Structure formats: C-alpha cells, structure tokens
Amino acid sequence: MDFTLNEFEGELLDLGRTYAEREIAPVAAQAWHEERCPTELLRGLGELGLLGTLVPEKWGGIGSSTVGYVALLEALGSVDPSVASAWQAHSTIGSMPLLLFGNDEQRERWLRPLAEGRKLGAFGLTEPGAGSDVRSLRTRAERVSDGWVLTGQKAFISNAGTDMSFGVTVLARTGEDASGKPRFGSFIVPKDTEGFTMGPKLRGIGWKGLDTRDLFFDGVWVPDSQVVGEPGGGLGQFLSALEVGRISIAALSLGTASGAMRLALAYAKQHEQFGTPIASFQAIQFKLADMATEIEAARWLTYYAASLRDAGKPFKKEAAMAKLKASQVATAVVTEAVQIFGGAGYMLESDVARFYCDAKVLEIGEGTNEIQRLVIARELGC
C-alpha cells in the first residue's frame, strides 16, 4: 500500500498547513477560551477553495481525493481541533447528502454555496432521546398538498447557528413501511424558514470553538423541491454520508493526537528536572515512543480506509475500524501529553490542556465507539 500524496494533494496539504500555521494558530486559543466559532477563519478556508474539498469542480469544489482530504484534515486538527471539527462536519455530513443524493437543481442552489465557501453546512440527526438508536427519531415530516410540515427537536447539531450557516438538512420520520418499520426523509431547511428556531450555543468540555445547538421545528413547511432524494430514503442517505464522516473523525483524531504529541515533545526537550531536559529520561522517552507508534498505526488504518473509498471499493468496516482506533489513540496520547507537562499541562491556559479537552468527544461523535464495534462485528458476519 502506497499512500504517498500526488502533486495536487501535496499542494493542497501545503496550502492548508500554511494557512493553519499563519492564520489559525495565533487565534486558536483565544477563540477556544471565548467559546466563539471563528467563522472568519472558515471563510478564509473557503476563499482558498478548501470548504469544497470533496466536492467536484462541477459543483464549485476542488474534487480532492479522500486521501488528500484526510491529510489536510490531520494538518488542520494538529493546530486547532475546534476549527477542524467545524470544517470536517461541513465537508462530510453537511455537504455529502446533497452531493450524493440531491438532484442537479438542489446541488446548484444549495451545494454550490457550501463548496465555494460562502455558506456553512449542517445536518440534523441527533435528538434528546435518539442518538445511536436512529430508528427512535421522533421529529416528523407530515405530507401536505404542497410539501411537508416538520415538527420536532434536534440536539447537539453543529454549524447550524453561525453567521455563515445556510440552515440545516434534517432527517425526519415520514411514516412506516408495510411491515411497520419507520421511514425517514432528508429535508433542506434554510436558516430563515418560519417555525425554525435554535437554542443558545451549547457549552461542551471541548471543541469550544465549534457552534453546537439544539434546533426546534414548529410546523416548518418544506416544499417538495427541498426533499433530498426519495422521501423514504433519508436514513440510507445519512448512513452513506456517515461512512465518510467516520474517516473524517479518524483523521481529526490523528490531528488531535499529533498536535498534542508535538507540544509534549517540544516541552520535554526544553523543560529540565534534576539539571537535565526530561526528554533524556527513559520514562519520558518510552511515553513518546509509544505515542508515536500508536499514532502511526492509526494513521495507516485511516489512510487505508480513505484509499478504499477513492478506489470505489467497500470501506464501511475499515472506516469504523479507523474511527475506533484513531479516537482511542487520541484520548490516550493527549492524556500522556498532559502527564509529560505535569502541573503545567493541567492548567487551562496551556495548549495541551485544550487538546486534552477536545479529545474525548472523538469517541462519541459520528457514531460512538460502541456503535463502531457493532458495525465491525456485523461486517465480520457476527
């Protein structure tokens, strides 16, 4: 297996890495502590063409491979997991349903502004009583003569409430099939739609720069032109987009882990105890060696899953494996990074503490790690 980036992918990575170091790094900590989504940075990424990384040029994107996207996301995540999380949510579940299942009119009207970096995409799935158990979703879409009426609530939805957001694509129950199983549809709801409101920005222990809110739908009318694909095919659409999202979270996990390790390595080389840098102590060397090895193992899984998608081969199992492994590596690495910093790493003023707080959600978002294990087991035939 050769995951060497081609010339275009390498240029893409250099572009994103330079922007991250020059523009994102200087303000990342401040935005995180202010609990503010720095949309000016996302607009900057859009001006570089990087908000449409996975979208073909035909619809305003740049048509990168999944491997190139993963490399770019890892680089962004190593500087600021919060901004990178907003970027990846926009690029995958915020854009992929429209790209994969929308018609040309919808792609032109809704996907193009997302791909060109003029708007930020969001997808509404999770509810207060339904997350992993998707079939328990209660938000309903009832058929009326000229469209659909949505009623319900979504929880923990990212990117829908910024000054850059277009609105949200929502998964809602449309009825039941002949056997009584629920059917779902995906509906485009623009930000200014009557009856569509949002709660305040939620406060998490990490990803403080990511705008996450509860969304409320009180008799929201949606015309047929804003139904993505078949009214009963929404769940399958989302699950297809989620497979890409799992690779995305794996890449973000790599960035989080590698960023924390970079901080820990630099600190170990300059911080002295007993008259010598702590990097000379075998106990610290072993920690760093294990961290580097685990990151590299997770990297191979992640890039392999991405390469399978690029080759048009099944990648469901590999995406779940990558997400499971990489997110576990991220939480383990940031914990050891804080340990290397000691008391200084425990203080929220330190960058490594920011990475520590940002890591835990990687084991939860885009399908919990328990769900990843179920996916893997089923793909093994269990």
TrEMBL record:
Residues 122-220 form the Acyl-CoA oxidase/dehydrogenase middle domain. One of its GO terms (molecular function) is acyl-CoA dehydrogenase activity. Residues 232-380 form the Acyl-CoA dehydrogenase/oxidase C-terminal domain. Transmembrane segments: none annotated. Residues 11-117 form the Acyl-CoA dehydrogenase/oxidase N-terminal domain. InterPro entries: Acyl-CoA_DH_CS (IPR006089), Acyl-CoA_Oxase/DH_mid-dom (IPR006091), Acyl-CoA_Oxase/DH_mid-dom_sf (IPR046373), AcylCo_DH-like_C (IPR036250), AcylCo_DH/oxidase_C (IPR009075), AcylCoA_DH/ox_N (IPR013786), AcylCoA_DH/ox_N_sf (IPR037069), AcylCoA_DH/oxidase_NM_dom_sf (IPR009100). Keywords: FAD, Flavoprotein, Oxidoreductase. Its cofactor is FAD. Belongs to the acyl-CoA dehydrogenase family. This is Acyl-CoA dehydrogenase. It comes from Trebonia kvetii.
